[in-house]
Write a structure and sequence with these properties.
With 122 residues, the protein is mostly helical. Helices cover 49% and strands 5% of the residues. A hairpin with a 2-residue loop joins strand 1 and strand 2. The longest helix has 18 residues.
Length: 122
């Protein structure tokens, strides 16, 4: 079991897919990392040597913000918006969509489960 950036990545998956288990690394960054380090796309994590895992770990630490640091950074950005009381910050505070989506219908992910309104029959 390879441990990179504090995450146990699955051993039986291809390296490009397994790297995406790390918060902050998507498909594009994973592909760039493997190409940069010269690791073939079809190789599996279990086939990597300890040296290659170390190279991946060092490359991620050197050039990418991932996991806890990234989560903290995002949380601080949201908190800053809320403290400024700008429009986006107020939307975050109220738990409503931030990027201009409609709320008359839909928006259930942000607003939560629909609450029935008493006396609204007919």
């Amino acid at each position: 079991m390879a441990r990179i950036a504090g995450v146990n990545i699955p051993t039986n998956k291809r390296v490009v897919i397994a790297l995406q288990y790390i918060h902050g690394i998507g498909a594009t960054k994973a592909k760039q990392l493997t190409e940069q380090l010269g690791i073939a796309a079809e190789r599996r994590v279990q086939d990597l040597s300890d040296q290659e895992v170390l190279q991946i770990r060092e490359a991620i630490d050197a050039s990418h913000t991932v996991e806890g640091d990234l989560r903290r950074q995002v949380a601080m950005n949201i908190k800053r918006l809320m403290d400024l009381a700008c429009y986006r910050g107020l939307r975050h505070r109220k738990g409503l969509p931030v990027r201009g989506q409609r709320t008359h219908t839909n928006a259930r992910t942000r607003k939560g489960k629909a609450k029935p309104i008493a006396g609204k029959k007919k």
